[in-house]
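[agent] plan:
  1. take the single chain provided in the ticket
  2. run structure prediction with default settings
  3. attach structure tokens to the ticket
  4. add a short note for the reviewer (M.T.)
[agent] executing step 1
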Amino acid sequence: MNASQILSFMIQAKSSQQIKWAAIPALYAVTLAQIAPKLSEEELFSLIAIGSVLYDHSTKELTAQAATNQLIQSLMHPTPDPQ
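[agent] step 2 finished; step 3 output follows
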């Protein structure tokens, strides 16, 4: 299977489970640990670098989601302006 085919499968795949962003890096790490013995050091470090980007993105996503939730709550339930 080539890279284009793998990407196509990744785009088309629909998970029956709702997975939160925070869980994705952990799932990636578990999968990577399972295949690590079959990889060269270079392949392993390349996939770890990809995992690092994934972790960074998930952290930013969680931060943005928390800020959005806080903004929505403040708009829905404004605190009275003390005068």
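[agent] step 4 note for reviewer: Residues 3-76 form one domain.
[agent] ticket updated
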